[in-house]
């Protein structure tokens, strides 16, 4: 079975002062995504930044970034509705109106490092329903076991279509720690016939990505999840991180899915 490789070039927290190679502006993000596509990425998970490099849900910036990417390559675009901790949920949810192929759905409010990640139950339901109406596939981001239960409640309410597509996010301060035991425990609790990947934040990124692949998951790489290639060595951009994840999959004898294969494997709604 081929592996769907996602690139996450920029997250909600890090700034260029943390790693000068972090892409923040639409053209920089588009260039990073195109380079990742050439390395085998078939999905691009996107956070946008404004002209001061702060997280934004501005629809014009999102549209411009999507257009720049679409001019370069046919990679599937997944917009983050997580956006950033200081952006109101009501602004974040508007991003799905651009009808990206996929968007994230974070099921629960939680502590997130020193901040708070606000995902109120009514808003999450409203966003899930709207995504279903627009045929935007939700990437379900679960940071702890209770989040899996919250997702299954949405499923029972008819708000999510199968196959459910999960990101098991480990290593956020406020969620479950990035350990092999937590990954195995979360994988064992996933519903049957779902699609999943590990998002390992920080130091355990490489090792947990490898374990996730060995357990049958997909993989994600990029500067949203780690700014370092290894301890004490900043990544000189997203490309080496994506190339390393692709190499890891190939070393495990797992072929990398093309954009067309990814569409089939993820069973994305037809457009
Ligand atoms: N960076 C992730 C841990 C999302 O994209 O929807 C949190 C996040 C969520 O960025
Ligand atoms: Zn994200």
Would you give an account of this structure?
- There is one protein chain.
- The protein is of the alpha/beta class and 271 residues long.
- The protein has one domain: TIM Barrel (Alpha-Beta Barrel), CATH 3.20.20.70.
- The protein is built from 9 helices and 14 strands.
- The strands form 4 sheets. Strands 11-10-9-6-5-2-1-12 form an 8-stranded parallel beta sheet. It has a two-stranded antiparallel ribbon with strand order 3-4. The protein has a two-stranded antiparallel ribbon with strand order 7-8.
- Helix 6 links the parallel strand 10 and strand 11.
- Helix 1 runs parallel beside helix 8.
- It is globular.
- (5S)-5-amino-3-OXO-hexanoic acid (KMH) binds next to loops.
CATH architecture: Alpha-Beta Barrel
Broad CATH class:
Alpha Beta
Number of helices, counting only DSSP H or I runs of 4 residues or more: 9
Indicate the percent of residues in helices: 25-40%
At the fourth level of CATH, the homologous superfamily is Aldolase class I
The ligands found in this model are: (5S)-5-amino-3-OXO-hexanoic acid, zinc ion
Output the helix-strand order. Answer: EHEEEHEHEEEHEHEHEHEEEHH
Shape: globular
Number of strands: 14
Structural class: alpha/beta
Radius of gyration equals 17 Å
Sketch the major β-sheet.
Answer: 8 strands, parallel
